[in-house]
Q: What sequence folds into this?
């Protein structure tokens, strides 16, 4: 009996020998590199669907350890420990990283590997994904480059890969230094870091991410920081694309290269693209010309519960709309947002449609529920944009403007409910009993901004962060006592009236 197909032999009356093969699935195998196979590609060549190619922790160089092709196989190529900084594919500045171009699906997996110093003379340094949908998990793509687009990754032609917990750092390309996608690619990014990527040319697009030509990517819980390009330092969305960003941080990016470009420090939305950002923090971005945080040029943008603060540019440090008289004006809608980038932060050069409702806007802006007041951030100088006690943004948003949980971020199977978490993965709807509801909807009323105010636990008498039997015991020990009585516990006086009584018990049990 073989380990693959079982062969049976039988004779029939006519004397003809018939050999029949009864198909049995072969057991998945693990192929070890370099123990059993000298190179990564030789192991991939030998692997069958369901197999795993396992790499020992070392640095892999040479032709058959780069320019790797999965050949359409549903296999996993992974490091033995899952730690990418210990298992490195080093291209030594030669062409060819990892290629998926044979219709690979989600069962084609690259996991726990670092890819570095790959240089492409066209598009795609570290990874090229075309008409395939592999899974890339816990990988690092760093110091790769491309003469064209996508120094780290280039996706095209209906590519729908899933990137999970990956880092794209210090890559370089003419556009989309970290990531570039075109031609109906719909990749997803979850828990990824896109940092310090550089597109050095003045007319470059998307230092961190370049999205163009009918692409519909999603970004969930991602950080896009410290990237540089001429247009869209952090992100550029162009040519009829539909990106979605949920619970992302777009911080410290720059749109200013070689004295040209300089628009959309954080994100640029242009040329008919329609971008949606939910629970996002857009802060400390810069643009040399206009749109420090956001540039919308003949695009459509919707911002829900976003915090857009401390961005800078000579024109429109928060938001600039300017289609340069070439394309029709665009539109921007902001709901439940905080915009604090100076009093002249919003500049509408091309008469785009700009609508803000239930927003805290420095310098003011006409719209239902809008205010102009210090949001009382806890520690903005250190990037802490949590709402402090007494913030006018607490319970001041519009419940009806909170988008549906279309990506089911709480994994409860309900994608029609309002999105349940804020940027810090705390409850999106949390009432502060000490704040009057000034927003729209039935309590709890949503806050403005990316972070929902989390009131202290009033029943936490012993300060352990929970309300439980230990707190109840301390309260009951002081029940009916006042400060002059022996055994009075001031921490149990939850309402601060100078006695522990029924109202304190009600607060604890609430």
A:
């Amino acid at each position: 009996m073989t380990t693959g197909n079982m062969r049976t032999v039988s004779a029939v009356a006519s004397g003809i020998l018939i050999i029949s093969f009864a198909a049995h699935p072969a057991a998945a195998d693990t192929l070890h590199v370099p123990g059993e196979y000298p190179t990564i590609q030789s192991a991939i060549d030998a692997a069958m669907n369901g197999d795993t190619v396992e790499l020992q922790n070392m640095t892999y160089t040479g032709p058959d350890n780069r320019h790797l092709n999965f050949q359409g196989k549903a296999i996993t190529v992974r490091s033995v420990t899952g730690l990418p900084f210990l298992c490195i594919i080093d291209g030594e500045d030669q062409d060819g990283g990892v290629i998926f171009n044979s219709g690979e699906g989600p069962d084609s997996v690259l996991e726990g590997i670092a890819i570095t110093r790959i240089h492409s003379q066209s598009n795609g340094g570290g990874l090229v994904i075309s008409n395939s949908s592999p899974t890339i998990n816990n990988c690092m793509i760093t110091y790769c480059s491309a003469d064209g687009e996508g120094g780290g990754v280039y996706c095209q032609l209906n590519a729908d890969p899933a990137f999970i917990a990956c880092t794209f750092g210090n890559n370089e390309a003419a556009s989309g230094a970290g990531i570039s996608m075109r031609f109906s690619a719909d990749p997803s990014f979850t828990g990824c870091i896109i940092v310090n990527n550089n597109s050095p040319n003045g007319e470059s697009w998307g230092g961190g991410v370049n999205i163009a030509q009918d692409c519909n990517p999603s970004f969930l819980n991602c950080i896009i920081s410290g990237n540089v390009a001429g247009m869209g330092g952090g992100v550029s969305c162009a040519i009829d694309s539909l990106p979605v960003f949920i619970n992302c941080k777009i911080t410290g990016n720059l749109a200013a290269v070689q004295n040209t470009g300089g628009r959309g420090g954080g994100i640029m939305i242009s040329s008919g693209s329609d971008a949606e950002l939910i629970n996002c923090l857009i802060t400390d971005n810069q643009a040399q010309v206009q749109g420090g945080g956001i540039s919308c040029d003949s695009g459509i943008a919707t911002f829900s519960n976003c915090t857009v603060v401390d961005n800078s540019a000579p024109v429109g440090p928060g938001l600039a709309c300017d289609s340069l008289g070439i394309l029709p004006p665009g539109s921007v809608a902001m709901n439940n947002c905080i915009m604090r980038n100076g009093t002249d932060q919003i500049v509408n050069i091309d008469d785009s449609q700009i609508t803000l409702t239930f927003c805290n806007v420095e310098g003011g802006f006409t719209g239902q529920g809008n205010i102009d007041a210090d949001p009382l951030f806890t520690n903005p100088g250190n990037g802490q944009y949590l709402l402090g006690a007494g913030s006018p943004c607490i319970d001041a948003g519009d419940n009806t403007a909170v988008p549906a949980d279309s990506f089911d971020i709480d994994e409860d199977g309900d994608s029609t409910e309002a999105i349940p978490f804020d940027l810090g993965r705390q409850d999106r709807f949390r009432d502060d009993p000490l704040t009057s509801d000034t927003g729209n909807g039935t309590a709890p009323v949503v806050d403005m901004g990316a972070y929902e105010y989390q009131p202290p636990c009033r029943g936490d008498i012993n300060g352990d962060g929970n309300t439980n039997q230990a707190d109840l015991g301390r309260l009951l020990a002081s029940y009916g006592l006042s400060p002059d009585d022996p055994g009075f516990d001031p921490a149990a006086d939850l309402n601060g009236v100078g006695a522990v009584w029924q109202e304190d018990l009600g607060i604890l049990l609430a």
